[in-house]
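## Example pair
The file below holds two records. Each record gives the amino-acid sequence first, followed by its structure token line.
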Amino acid sequence: MAQLPEPTWAVSVAVSCVFALQALLYHARPAFGQDQREVRAKALIEAAAVRHAETRKAHPLIEGLFRSLPGALMAVNYCADDETRAETTALIVSSIEHAREGGIADAVFLNILLEITPPHVVVAAVVPHAGPDGRLAGLLQDADNPVRKHIEGQAPQGPAGAPDFRHYAAYLFSQSPQEPAAVLVEHMFRSDPGQALKVFMDLELLMKHPLARMDKALPSGISPLKRLLYMEHVVGDVLWHERHGIRIEPMRAEAARAELAKGAAHAMWWARLYVAEILVQHPEFQTPELVERLKADKHELVRLAITRPEREGQ
């Protein structure tokens, strides 16, 4: 029996195949009818597979990769109806599960899948399974996970930077605003409270004032949102000084505490969740009265956020 090549060789071959397939796929999506696109895409994929036939025979990992690749490409690039979308979701979830087991070919395949799948499709597939008891439990909490980095617009390699929540916002807007996915909301506010707050402000505007934008002059009648925008600015300014080691004037810190106290009494639960996360992540803003008020909050996510240090033994 022939000796198998080293894993590093397998990965390099697979990656080179990926680039070839991606180039072919780019030309496989003209503005024809769907049937014509599928025929052409299948032909190009088969041609690429034939070109690398000898390579595939050399290693069973690469053989398995190419066996499953055509179906994956077709499902992701032409997911138009509910049935195909369901198949795509199942493919994404199972691929993530397999890659977590540490297989080389599975990891390469997942990278291919992420490259050719729009982030909003990945979000819709992942979030329902990302809860504590889900098949993808812990994925959103892992800052180095390639799926999370793909969704949040970060480089696959290197340290995690500031997340991009645009695709989360699109997913939340498509769901019931009264009952958003708790695991996603918790992740957003825990990883970047300020950006999460702005996302929920934008969603509120889209639902009640579709033509308004948070980065423009806000229409009259929504002063509560204006107050939140000002609160985030004041608190964010203090945190910016703190992050860069610049002296914070006492008046700035006091102004931030005053804004957080107002935010803790806001009618919107997600505004109070922002306050809770800021207090947990920056204890210097805490006061006993404010913490106790949030511990008694009527929304579960707010109570869970403010009591997290106690529950996790921090």
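Second record, same layout:
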Amino acid sequence: MKYIEDMSPTEAYSWVSLLTTAGIFWYFYQRMWDGFQIVQHSPGGLIEIFVGLIIFTIIAHAVIAGIFSVQRNKGAGELDFEPREKDERDIAIERKAEQYSHWFIYAAINVIIFHLLFENAYSPEYDPPFSVLGPSNMFFVLMGSLFVGDIIKRLSMILAYRA
């Protein structure tokens, strides 16, 4: 196992972003689930959760970027918020990880659409273990898909740096 000091800045950033995204997803999960059921929030409550997640994510990633900027310029006397130059390997790894993330999100959205259509078409006979008809349920599966897609991206980057 590598220590963070032995990692490239991009790999270390991927680890920190992964842990941050997983923590935000855990917070989201805790707000949406009670036991084995999704909590049915009002539309106003869902907007509150959504806006809170966006604000918290922006702040968390801005703090991470600031910390990495300070570390990169330690002792330089001034902060440089310009992005670090990425080499061809960094670009290729990030592009491949984005591709995996997008494939997952596309597949998840198609499964959600199919499930929604199937549930509406055969609603009296079909009683799924997880319904997407309610606003809270649909919000959870869509936001959850985006979170899992980002986690897949970060994990793919970390695995590519390890290879």
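Notes on the second record: The chain has one domain: 4-162. The first strand starts at residue 33 and ends at 34.
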